[in-house]
């Protein structure tokens, strides 16, 4: 477990958690362990049962008001520092917020893109300001993941048009699964954002309703975008099925044409295999005449099938 402690008054990093501090603090806990969370809870007066939830990978977005803190759970896309995206699309992030402290608990190491300097960065940082900065980082992380999804969908569409190998359809199914997880996480986060407007704990968000509304609009737009991506993936699956069906029909046409073309010389040869009197049977050129007739009808059928685009 790693713990990063920052005094928000001067953005100075602290090595240890002060026993007593009147100043606002930001604490980021990464890859927590049970016993270390217990010790942290004792220092910050947070019940261990509440911190223990942070060890659950399957926690869904929600809000709980506990004594002295507001417990908020979001789900965010998982990205490594090198930018590669794992197969598990989202992971929970826990926030414990009060007027004096903001605590973020991350199940695994993640890197959030730093925000550009704005008016928010120019004001005195408080736990609430740090919280809104983190909300913006969550939104940016989803935007980044949606950009990756858009690029992957474009690649999948091109692969489907080029080949009908199972690898292409597997790529579409995986992207569809990612889109479902992202949509579920975004909708859960939106529910949390909407509930924050009505939180009365320490009147944290009384003067921040406009900011919450703006962030909620951003999330709504991302949900609409991912619904469009899901439709594109469904269209890709339909296109894949159409390509397979068309290729199958073309193959059946070719095999049928070959069978009919070969049937003519086979039929003529079977007639002349009978032990009865047949035309040209007494001619010394019988073989060549029969061969010429078979070739003529074979070429005629080939030309016919070529005209109707069966071969």
Key traits:
seven-stranded mixed sheet; alpha+beta; 2 domains; Methane Monooxygenase Hydroxylase, Chain G, domain 1; Beta Polymerase, domain 2; 311 residues; rod-shaped
Please, could you describe this protein's structure?
The protein has helices spanning 34-44, 48-52, 119-122, 127-162, 166-196, 209-271, 286-307; strands spanning 2-7, 12-14, 25-30, 62-66, 69-79, 85-97, 101-106. The chain is α+β, with helices and mostly antiparallel strands and 311 residues long. It has two domains: 2-244, CorA soluble domain-like (Beta Polymerase, domain 2); 245-307, Methane Monooxygenase Hydroxylase, Chain G, domain 1 (Up-down Bundle), CATH 1.20.58. Strands 2-1-3-7-6-5-4 form a seven-stranded mixed beta sheet. Strand 4 and strand 5 (69-79) form a beta hairpin. The two termini are 67 Å apart. The model is unreliable at 80-86 and 117-121 (pLDDT under 50).
End-to-end CA span: 67 Å
Report the helical percentage.
55-70%
SSE order, one letter for each helix or strand? EEEHHEEEEHHHHH
**Residue share in β-strands:** 15-25%
The gist of it:
The chain has seven helices and seven strands, in the order βββααββββααααα.
SSE blueprint and pairings:
Elements: E1 2-7, E2 12-14, E3 25-30, H1 34-44, H2 48-52, E4 62-66, E5 69-79, E6 85-97, E7 101-106, H3 119-122, H4 127-162, H5 166-196, H6 209-271, H7 286-307
Parallel strand pairs: 3-7
Antiparallel strand pairs: 1-2, 1-3, 4-5, 5-6, 6-7
Helix pairs in contact: 4-5, 4-6, 5-6, 6-7
